[in-house]
Specification:
- β5, α4 and β6 form a beta-alpha-beta unit.
- By secondary structure, the protein is α/β, with parallel strands linked by helices.
- The longest helix is centred in the last third of the chain and has 18 residues.
- The chain has nine helices and ten strands.
- Strands 1, 2, 3, 4, 5, 6 and 7 form a seven-stranded mixed sheet that branches. A three-stranded mixed sheet has the order 8-9-10.
Length: 292
Amino acid sequence: MSYRSGLVALAGRPNVGKSTLANALAGSHVAAVSPRPQTTRRRITAVVHGEDWQAVMLDLPGFQRPADGLTVRMQATVDGSLADCDAALYVLNAAEPVGGGDRFIAERLRASKLPVITVLNQIDRLSRDEVAAAIARAALLVPFVELHPVSAREGEGVEALRADLPQLLTEGPRFFPEGMATDQTEEELAAELIREAALLRLRQEIPHALAVDVQEIEPARHGVVVRAAVLVETESQKGIVVGKGGGMIRDIGSAARSALGRLWGTEVHLDLTVRVRKRWRDDESMLTRLGL
């Protein structure tokens, strides 16, 4: 029996649920999820395994207009990754009207000639009639192999989508061993989940200026110790992240520690600091260090 594999781009505008879908398909928490724009900043690999196939999902930053050094790199990641891929999942938010960003991405996908499965996410927010109307709108955007309405958050429709992934794949090698959900390092996974915990708790103006630099992960007597710095750009932002009496950073640390413990199956001791790094989003050396 031949084996099928391929690189599959998760393409969509920011905040349509691409990272939630990547986690659901991989069966593991490999990508940060929050309602904030720019939650996904770099290419995240989520590996989906079948009996005789493997789809390597590339969770890409949302298509956007570059505004600084960080977003320039993010859009370059999208463009370069799309060119490398064998197929795409075109992810739309079923609960929102089709917008200019959706149509722009549709144009890029049509030009790429890649086989596409259209994924209409967040159907849990809609009635049956509203889902039908959303499917009709989405069907006009790009030629597709299949169209799947799903709720990645609730798991509705995800197994049916997973079963259709082999249609996008061609005969090829197994890229990752069975059971491996991502090629991210432990440091990258820790940074993702610490930043997710912060994004879910901070005000709207902070997330774009926030990054996480994981400096060390080492064994402890029980579990592991993770030492990391939360980076912001101003002293006022630092005050917000630290919080009154250190309450905010404690909450962030507690949530991230629990998430990492569940992911790694061990006790996690998290040592978090907050540091000001002015204009880090335009600092090429810092962007490289952060893997962005």
